[in-house]
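Hi X.,

You mentioned you wanted examples for the new student's onboarding notes, showing what a folding record looks like when two proteins sit in one file. Here is a clean example. The first protein comes first, with its sequence line followed by its structure tokens.
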Amino acid sequence: MPLRRCLHQLIVIAGVALLAACATTKEGVLPDTSGDVKPDVVWRTSLGEGPGVTYTRLKAAVNDGTIYAADTGGTVTALELATGDRLWSVDLEQPILGGVSFSQDQLFVSLREGTLVALAAEDGSEQWRSMLPSEAVAQAAADNKRVFIQTVDGRVTALEREDGEQAWSYEAGMPVLSVRGTGTPLITDRLVITGYATGKLVALDKVLGIPRWDVRLGVPDGRSELERLVDVDGSPVMDGRLIYAAAYHGKVAAISEMGEVVWQEEGSTYTSPELALGSVYLTLDDDSIQSYDMMSGARAWQQTALKGRGLSQVTAMGTYLAVADEEGYVHFLSQVDGGLEGRILLRPRPLHINYPHQSEATNWRLSRGRDFGIRSNMVDTEEGLLVYTNAGDLALIELR
């Protein structure tokens, strides 16, 4: 990666981290919940080296009762979903950035040095490694024939899933300054759809890798380069024939497969939209959570009580929404009105220190150099909510 671009990314990351730190609420001050939801930890295990204070957001993949997860140190592990028991583990000998994706008995894992690795889901045996143009910080996506992955230099690359040979590569122009992040491409019958740091959502021909249409979700506006950031960092999602996507300093929009904008509303975010019960849910960049009607874009409700807590992407779980924060809490909201229904604190038990007459959060004082928050996207499964903490713990949560 060019030195200038690398420096720009470091500046953006530092700036965003500083803004988040300034906005963080005082630890221990939490809004009340109704208490209608009682979260329980079914099981909990350490995967090894967690994301910590780095930007990395590792996401696990789940299929047919098995979890496939990775730690940043380079280990991929398969676990039984119901019990957390380990089935197998392999060391790829390089730091892992983009988490694990599953497709048709294959796993795909991106490494820090710009490599995509294919593993057999049955036992973790390595099938091939392929060099990428740069590093990838999001999961790959795949269809029957190919694997598609976006790297931080603005390229989308298609690889043959049989042997990892490159089929095509598409590069979009990058702005001078961007947030270091990308989303997982959305794969349809004909298209590979992904967002760029230019503020555009681009649809590429799945066979040829050439653009078919693009939609602008954000327009650079402001005096400074930071104010002009319009990255589409989250992954686009699809329901029926409509595609939903959102940009930082931009819009959230519903778009047809032909590239026609059905509706668009204000919705600045770093994350992906979540679809459930006829609504689009979005964690905004000020840590409020907004609900939109899926068909019209009309705003239904907004939850602002968690502002400043460094929220993760919102995840639908039954009739609730789950969202995690940088202190290690997972909050549960009603999908109907956004009301806070319950929460649970996930921090490493061996480091528990009791201070008399202090709040639960204060009793978990952060150790130097440790990050006990939750940044990775959570996964709703048939057994409960799968949560991966920055400290490297994987936990399954059920609701009572």
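Then the second protein repeats the pattern, sequence line and then tokens:
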Amino acid sequence: MKILKVISLLLDYPTQVIFDAKDELAQAIAATRVISPEQRLAVQALVDELTAGDLMDAQEAYVKLFNRGRHFSLLLFEHVHGESRDRGQAMVDLMAQYENDGFAIDTKELPDYIPLYLEYLSHCDEPTARAGLADVEHLLALLAARLVEQGSPYAACFQALLQIAGFEPEVAIAEVSEQVSQEVYDDSFEALDALWEEEAVTFMSSEQTDSCGINSANAPQKQREDVAVPLHWVDFAHDATATNKV
């Protein structure tokens, strides 16, 4: 689905690609029918906000929101397993899933990085993509609720993902609202320093990484393109895998 590729790009660290592709993004958002008209407007509003100002300002706002602590972390398993060793096995399993489906990872991001996961799902058929989102519905709702509470336009991305997965965003968010209301959010540098002081956990040994077969020559590859950007924007006009999957 093209819209998953759009949301993947919007949730990744802002680059010049967003500015250069804003017309294509707008076309893809307007064309999709897997989210409601209201949700299309909300996602488009995020595109407009990101591209209306200076790129460095967008990058600074992104880092302040997503890269300070775990509250808004874009790593799926961080919300499930924290720093436990169970997270390492979950990563190995997800990497194996990517490999089995011929999706090669050639970035430095962890496999549970949400924009990467969405890019993977954008290559899947629609039922598989919807099921993949449904599997993490609670986490999508949790992040959506937290972002709504902060008044962030990024909430539109997670609300759209909930809708694609077959859930009503308002209902899903309401189900986690009590949990979110009781959370204490601290994005101070002192709190960030405290996180860094926690004991580091090695999730995967080099042998485990090798066994996952990343970039394996034996598997049919859907190699991620354009290494110049963090999550590699593929021109819709040349993306055969996304044809008629909006």
